[in-house]
Amino acid sequence: MNRPPPILLNANDLPAVNDIAATGKVKILLVDDNEDNLVSLEAALEVLGEDLILARSGRQALRELLEHDFAAILLDVKMPEMDGFEAAELIRARKRSQHTPILFLTGYRNEEHLFRGYDLGAVDFLFKPIVPEVLRSKVAVFVALSRSAQRQRMQAEVLAKAEQRFRSLLNAAPDAMLITKEDGEIVLANSRTDGLFGYSRSDILGHTIRKLIPDWNPTTGSDPCAWIAVRSDGTRFPSEVSSSPLLTDEGLLVTSAVRDISERKLYEQRIEERNQQLAALNQELEAFSYSVSHDLRAPLRSIEGFSRILLRDYTGQQLDKTAGDYLERMRAAAGRMGKLIEDLLELSRVSRAELSFEPVDLSRLAESAIEDFRSRDPERQVEVSIEPEMSACGDSRLLSVVLCNLLGNAWKFTGKTATARIEFKREKIDGVDTFSVGDNGAGFNPGFSDKLFAPFQRLHRVSEFEGTGVGLAIVQRIIYRHDGRIWADGRVGEGATFYFTLAGDTRTNDEI
Amino acid sequence: MTKSRPILLVDDNADDELLTLDALRASRVSHQVIVARDGQEAIEWLFGHGAHAGRDTEVMPQLILLDLKLPKMNGLEVLSNVRRDDRTRNVPTVILSSSTRREDIDSSYTRGANSYVQKAVNFEEYSEAMQCLCRYWLDHNQV
After folding, report:
1. Chain-chain contact of B123 with A294 (C-beta, under 8 angstroms)
2. Minimal-distance CA residue of chain A relative to B16
3. CB-nearest partner of B123 from A294, A298, A304
4. How far apart are CA B10 and CA B35, in angstroms?
5. Nearest to B80 by CA among B99, B93, B70
6. Looking at beta carbons, which pairs linking A346-351 to residues 24 or more positions away fall under 8 Å?
7. Tell me, what's the pLDDT at B91?
8. What is the CA radius of gyration of chain B?
9. Tell me: the pLDDT tens digits for B12-53?
10. What confidence tens digit (pLDDT) does each residue in A199-217 have?
């Protein structure tokens, strides 16, 4: 079935035709060998306000016709050399002027003249003496006709351009675009359709779209539908079809954009597989953590517990001072290893824990951490300044771990500072809310600042400041899980400041 | 103190058993302590089956100290069995575990544990916790 493609847009949808061009002056050609006649024609028509072009012979008229398009030609019949009829014949012979209305001016009514004139395509005869009113009203009709023809031409041009744009858009689309009637009959398809389905367009125009997409249904909502599509060779592929109604002069049409999503499906499948692998790995890790937490701690408990019992029950009897010292060392080492295991478990926990985002009062968390330190170290005098009412959005348990670690470090590393000071505050850095924990303690060599956050990295000897070297790794992981940043500033002997941001500020649980 | 009912300690680790017994002694607990080395043995002792057939099941423990990770039948299964049976339903059961995993703690309470105590590496902490527990569950608690 072959049919011309329908016009898909309403003229009303198009931009208005250029008004200046449509209302601009038209040209009227006046041809007469008699100067007086020309002057009176000109005088009669001047009031129309159009461009009047005068020619004094048939030849001159033909020359003018090479340069201009005329709304009408007033042509004197009786002229020397080339009379009006001859000129009309030549005018008609030219493509450009073959439809230009010609009004013959003649001195007398002659049947033969009339026939010949009309034969040559004259639209009218005007008999001399010319009555200006009659002349004007007749010419005015042709001016109006010309204007309306011009407007139509321009509209057609705009329409053609719009349709051309529409078609090139259609053909440039990465999807197969099909325009169908409501019942699914295909009225237009873009070139991508051929490639995607393996049909030539003439094979599908006029056929139902269900030949390509058996489940096609125009009444689905605005969400794309996942439908199986069928190629000309019968092979099937998953597709995504977005349909939208198109109301036209010819009734309701449906545009369907069809996209091959095989590749995406493949990727989705791969991602799904990866996710399963990851989940399996996570589970293994979980099992590993569990045995670390359980099985590695049990022997430590024995070492620690029995050393302590020995110290308690045998000191001064079978145990001399040196033996006691050795046992004390064993006990302390077991304790350190226990702490290490706990920190490692915490590190693995904070990496896997599900975050629950909620507003968190950081100031309050910091205060309670400091209270805790003070009660454990009642003899220490530390000047602590915590900016009140600092809140952020995040996981309160994990943010508490962050503050306990950072403030705990500050507490620890000011242990040898005479007037220890710790400050927790918020400021804008590069327009971002940035929290900082600063102290005037031992500080660190800024050359090592990138090593600070690596697990087991310690910048101080255990004998100077105890610790496992996992705390900042835990802190960094928690901050990363909040899409934040963390960095540190410091100088040996001049204290350290840790800065962190929490991008989670604007998030809610729904977005995670 | 009136003639007290025993404490049932379920733990497969001999060291942990010794440490727990030491901690109980340190808490001046004079109760007899029955030790079961796996979950199945605990259940058999409680209900007088298998190796413990014929045990006087009128005597139920005043307190069960239960490890989670046990051979044959794990601590959670033992706990479920204890809570299911009318004879043991009300026996206070304290979980003693190395684990601090949220899941372990949650499922212990879901199945009716009365307390959950981490077996700390630091024996002093463990002893103190044990002392508090015993004082509560053996001296103050009314079943």
Report:
1. no
2. A302
3. A304
4. 6
5. B93
6. A346/A401, A346/A470, A346/A474, A347/A455, A347/A470, A347/A473, A347/A474, A347/A477, A348/A285, A348/A289, A349/A289, A350/A398, A350/A401, A350/A474, A350/A477, A350/A478, A350/A481, A351/A477, A351/A481
7. 93
8. 14
9. 989 999 999 999 998 888 889 999 999 999 999 999 998 888
10. 888 888 999 999 999 988 8
pLDDT band at A11 (very low <50, low <70, confident <90, very high): very low
CA distance A505 to chain B (A): 27
Using an 8 Å CB-CB cutoff, list residues of chain B that contact chain A: 13, 15-16, 18-19, 22, 69, 97-101, 119-124, 126
List residues bridging with B69 in a β-sheet.
Answer: none
- Judged by CB atoms closer than 8 Å, whether chains meet at A308 and B99 is answered as no
Q: For residue B33, what pLDDT is reported?
A: 94
Convert the pLDDT of each residue in A47-66 to its tens digit: 888 889 999 999 999 999 98
Cβ contact B126–A305 (<8 Å):
yes
A149/A156 Cα distance (integer angstroms): 10
Cβ-based contacts under 8 A for chains A and B? 59
Q: Which residues of A touch B18 (CB under 8 A)?
A: 306
Q: Look up tokens 């300044």; give the residue.
A: A385
Regarding beta strands A420-429 and A432-439, do their DSSP bridges make them parallel or antiparallel, or are they unpaired? antiparallel
CA A367 to chain centre: 45
- pLDDT, position A13: 44
Other beta carbons within 10 Å of A153: 12
Q: CA-CA distance, B41 to B62, in Å (whole number)?
A: 18
Q: In Å, what is the CA distance from B83 to each residue of B36, B77, B78, B92?
A: 18, 10, 9, 10
In sign, the C-alpha dihedral spanning B40, B42, B47, B53 is: positive
DSSP strands (E only) in A396-493:
420-429, 432-439, 486-491
Query: What is d(CA A455, CA A346) in angstroms, rounded to the nearest whole number?
Result: 12
Q: How far is CA A294 from CA A245, A473, B71, B76, B118, in A?
A: 64, 23, 14, 16, 10
More confident position, A233 or A504 = A233
Tokens representing A310 are 């020995």
Chain A positions contacting chain B at CB under 8 Å are 289-290, 293-295, 297-302, 304-306, 308-309, 334-335, 337-338, 341, 345
List, for residues A366-403, the tens digit of each pLDDT value.
Answer: 999 999 999 999 999 999 999 999 999 999 989 999 99
| Alpha-carbon distances of A130 from A83, A103, A344, A423, A477, rounded to whole Å | 19, 12, 112, 106, 101
The SS3 call for residue B74 is: coil
Residue position matching structure tokens 């398809």: A189
Average pLDDT over residues B55-60: 87
Contact in structure between B122 and B102 (CB atoms under 8 Å): no
Residue of B123, B127, B128, B130 to mutate for A, most A C-beta atoms under 10 A: B123
